[in-house]
Design brief:
The structure holds 2 protein chains of 2 kinds.
Chain A (H helix, E strand, L loop, with lengths): L29 H23 L4 H8 L2 H32 L4 H16 L2 H9 L7 E4 L3 E4 H4 L2 H27 L2 H9 L4 H31 L11 H12 L2 H32 L6 H7 L12
Antiparallel strand pairs in A: 1-2
Helix pairs in contact in A: 2-11, 3-4, 3-7, 3-9, 3-10, 4-7, 5-7, 7-9, 8-9, 9-11, 10-11, 11-12
Chain B lengths: L2 E12 L2 E12 L3 E5 L6 H8 L7 E6 L2 E2 L2 E4 L2 E4 L2 H8 L2 E4 L11 H11 L5 H14 L15 H13 L5 E5 L7 H16 L3 E5 L3 H7 L2 E6 L2 E6 L1 H6 L4 H11 L1
Parallel strand pairs in B: 3-10, 3-11, 8-9, 9-10
Antiparallel strand pairs in B: 1-2, 1-4, 4-5, 6-7, 11-12
Helix pairs in contact in B: 3-4, 3-5, 4-5, 5-6
Chain lengths: ~300, ~250
């Protein structure tokens, strides 16, 4: 029995077939032009609103390089960098603890993630800033004995708040990265006589680091933006500086735009850096073929060697 | 011939499932022993118990003067700290089915890792020795390659060199050719034949009956966690007494 034919195509008999040089008319996509046009129109509308709105662009330009803003951006960068370093250190420490043989260590790491990933980072910043209400003195015998309010300056609170919070996310990432280095390599290291510490340092972590590099790039970008939350605890970073200016001169939107320009500049530079870092590691002979795949898709489990 | 390995009453359970039901085995220096058996018979687990990658639930393994994982004190086995267990494990070379090469190290890096980190050899010394071993397994030309750039057969030859670099008293092979494409099996078996000729003590879990017949001094057939047959390959493979061994062999030799 013959199948019914699709509506739009009529049967072509062999005698009617054209020669090899027959012209081909491509399908048109009017929908693409229409959707593109709508988007352009919307962009133009938004652009116009900003152009004719009550924004003194001259003021934006004037404050873009103002000393207070530049110094504030410096603090932004410093807070972000310190918090990221703290976050990475905590992420590795707790990520390794999460996989410990000791159930109490495992539980402690779980508790850390549960608390710090489960509460808003702004709340955590405020708690760190007021930590003196819980621990009035910082006392380590023979080392430190100070009033907590003197120790936890806005800068310290910002770094602690952002870093400890970031660490809770990175803990899970590190755990996943360690888990994705296949178990066989660990066993191989053990049969060579390497201790657990040596195996972790020399075999597992170097491969984990490569796997989580893209995540660290995203963390750095996120951290740069989240550092603006420190403005709420009187930390004189860029947003705080901008606020202090517009409380006086009233140029609110202008100064917020100044901040936006600097944040965008920062995140753009970090994105470019991340791109080259990933490309560098992607190109590395060590990450040829199979390893490069896990690098791109770090959430996927790598192919166990030899199974491919 | 003096004794190299003696396993006494090895038992291993995974949950309520008893995988090894009290195995005894003796291997002398320079002997090549092949362990055959259907999949799931516990032969890999037995090999992993020998070097304590799996801790036996009962029994113990004696290797060349020391009890693996334990010290004999006042008539009882006292469990050793992990560090000392690792030192014992480094006396046994292990070759895995899936090679387990360190993916972030070159071929040379894989071979020098143990000697440098565990034995404390200088890099120059370790590299010189590693190159000799890579020469021996025919992989010297690939010393600077990464594992992901090698074929399965090449990876396994590197893995053998890596195990040999620790100058082990005994070499253990856990189905070394099972993960390989058929045309790559030969090159690995060739390396193993050369090792056997050189007098290396070897315990080989394998499905390669021909290899066992040719190279092994003795063959063990395991079924359901027990040793059902043990003896010279000619006798065991051609004329097994145990009916289950006969049926297993007739299936694999068919």
């Amino acid at each position: 029995m013959r199948q019914p034919e699709p509506k739009s195509t009529a049967a072509v008999s062999p005698e009617d077939l054209p020669g090899p040089g027959v012209a081909v008319r491509r399908l048109r996509h009017p929908g693409r032009w229409i959707s593109g046009g709508i988007v352009l129109l919307l962009l133009a509308f938004i652009g116009r609103a900003f152009a004719v709105g009550q924004i003194q662009w001259a003021v934006v330009g004037q404050f873009l390089t103002a000393e207070v803003i530049i110094v504030g951006f410096g603090w932004t960068l410093l807070i972000s960098a310190c918090a990221l370093v703290l976050g990475v250190a905590l992420g590795f420490a707790f990520g390794i603890m999460r996989l410990s043989e000791n159930p109490i260590l495992r539980f402690a790491a779980w508790l850390y993630v549960w608390i710090f990933r489960g509460t808003p980072v702004l709340l955590q910043l405020l708690i760190w800033f007021n930590i003196a209400l819980v621990f009035p003195r910082l006392y380590i015998p023979g080392l430190v004995d100070e009033r907590m309010v003197d120790v936890v300056t806005p800068f310290v609170a910002a770094v602690l708040g952002l870093g400890v919070n970031e660490g809770s996310y990175l803990t899970e990432v590190v755990r996943g990265g360690i888990g994705s280095v296949d178990r066989g390599q660990k066993e191989a290291a053990h049969t060579l006589g390497m201790t657990s510490g040596q195996t972790m340092r020399r075999i597992i972590l170097p491969q984990t680091l490569r796997l989580i590099l893209p995540v660290l790039g995203n963390s750095a970008i996120g951290m740069l933006k989240f550092s603006s939350l420190a403005a709420t605890i009187a930390m004189g970073e860029m947003l705080n500086a901008a606020q202090r200016i517009y409380f006086i001169n009233g140029a609110v939107i202008e100064l917020l735009f100044v901040c936006a320009v600097w944040y965008l500049a920062g995140t753009t530079v970090l994105s470019i850096g991340q791109y080259y870092l990933e490309r560098h590691f992607g190109r590395d002979a060590a990450t040829a073929t199979s390893e490069r795949r896990w690098f791109k898709g770090w959430t996927r489990r790598p192919v166990v060697e030899g199974e491919a | 011939m003096s004794l190299a390995v003696k396993a006494v009453g090895i038992r291993k359970c995974f949950g309520s499932h008893e995988v090894l039901k009290g195995l005894d085995l003796e291997v002398t220096h320079g002997e090549v022993l092949c362990i055959l058996g259907p999949s799931g018979s516990g032969k890999s687990t037995f090999l992993r118990c020998i070097n304590h990658l799996e801790t036996p639930n009962g029994g113990y393994v004696w290797v060349d003067g020391a009890i693996m994982g334990y010290a004999l004190s006042r008539g009882a086995l006292q469990e050793l700290p992990v560090k000392q267990l690792r030192a014992q494990q480094s006396q046994l070379g292990m070759v895995f089915q899936h090679f387990n090469l360190f993916a972030h190290r070159t071929v040379l890096g894989n071979v020098i890792e143990g000697p440098m980190v565990v034995r404390g050899l200088s890099r120059a010394k370790a590299e010189a020795r590693a190159m000799d071993l890579l020469e021996q397994v025919g992989m010297a030309a690939k010393a600077a390659s990464y594992p992901s750039q090698l074929s399965g057969g090449q990876k396994q030859r590197v893995a053998i060199a890596r195990a040999l670099a620790m100058e082990p008293r005994v070499m253990l092979f856990d189905e070394p050719t099972s993960a390989l494409d058929p045309e790559l099996v030969g090159e690995v078996l060739e390396v193993m034949r050369a090792l056997a000729r050189g007098g290396t003590t070897m315990i080989v879990v394998t499905h390669e009956i021909r290899f066992a017949r040719e190279v092994a001094d003795r063959v063990v057939v395991m079924i359901d966690g027990e040793i059902r047959e043990m003896g010279a390959p000619g006798a065991v493979l051609s004329n097994p007494a145990d009916p289950r061994v006969r049926s297993f062999l007739s299936r694999v030799l068919a």
